[in-house]
Amino acid sequence: MSTSTNQSNSNAGADAVRASLPDGLVYVSGAFRSAADATVSVFDHGLLYGDGVFEGIRAYNGRVFKLERHVERLFDSAKAIRLAIPHTPSELCDIVLESCRRNAIVDGYLRVVVTRGPGDLGVDPRKCPRAELIVIVKPTLSIYAAPSTGIRLVTSTFRRNSIECLSPAIKSLNYLNNVLARIEANDRGADEALMLDMNGFVAEATVDNFFIVTDHALVTPPTATNLKGVTRETILAVAASLGIRTEEKPIALFDAWTTREAFICGTAAEVVPVISIDDRVIGSGAVGAVTGRIVTAYHDLVRSQGTPIHASRPSQELAASFKV
Ligand SMILES: Cc1ncc(COP(=O)(O)O)c(C=O)c1O
Question: Which of 37, 100, 316, 322 is most solvent-facing, going by the fewest CB within 10 Å?
């Protein structure tokens, strides 16, 4: 049987499972439940105070890309807010892979959320004895209308949270800083907002890191003012493998406006060319040559690496705890 026939058979199988479960199975409160039954308490501090952390992860071709790195970052975010995740990193990887299997995922987007859990009114986390783990899996997710031909950015008047207030390295459930910037971009007819740090240098977009291409290198801001993006670090490695010089240094708005090429990147959006910033056309207004090479190399990498969804099974003890 040819590979393409195998692929179409497995896609047909996945389609059949999804047709029977249009919104999929969600892992919550220690069990897999239909999306309609997947609920959390109204006293959950994730809901009441944005007290929790999350990850966005992607699967391609039956593999989860950078699974261990995302789980590591989730544990780092949780440590920073002193949230005890009630699983080991390896158990969490198993739950993510099992979520993919239960939802017949070949390609898809995964959201892993850990909240402080149900407590009582009042911000004190000691009111919440048990953290809540949620895993949502979707076959597709779209962030921008026409990502391949490039998007238009505007600089937000909202500055990215400073490390003195809420470190952007913590991928927390409190995204209002980013939401306000995205609302502003929507109101101004742009596709996305570019957020500056408290010193006026470029920090990142609302859910993506930012790169420019200069005459000398591919440049991105140091991570002190933005999320330590998994895609960002992957692209720095991809660029090195292509022989493209990289630099991590602050980017002034002037340098962003006048750069030859720019793009944003993140797990969900992948690599998205930027064609204008604050109505200044970037380069020729089309996708630049370096950006094009990065897009292609990233596309090839994510489809050729990752943790296989079907190769391993969770421990018997963990599997026994999965209900439904
Ligand atoms: C604020 C912010 N910056 C950057 C990113 C990109 O991070 P990653 O490449 O790990 O998805 C995200 C992803 O959600 C984000 O929320």
Answer: 316
pLDDT of residue 319: 80
Is residue 249 flagged as an active site residue?
Answer: no
Is the shortest distance between the CB of 287 and ligand 1 below 6 Å? no
Among 122, 141, 160, residue at a domain's last position: 141
Average predicted confidence (pLDDT) for the chain? 93
Average pLDDT over residues 230-246: 98
| CATH number (domain holding residue 101) | 3.30.470.10
CATH code for position 267: 3.20.10.10
Check pLDDT > 90 for residue 6.
no
Per-residue tokens: 179: 């939401």
What's the pTM? Answer: 0.93
**230 CB less than 6 Å from ligand 1?**
yes
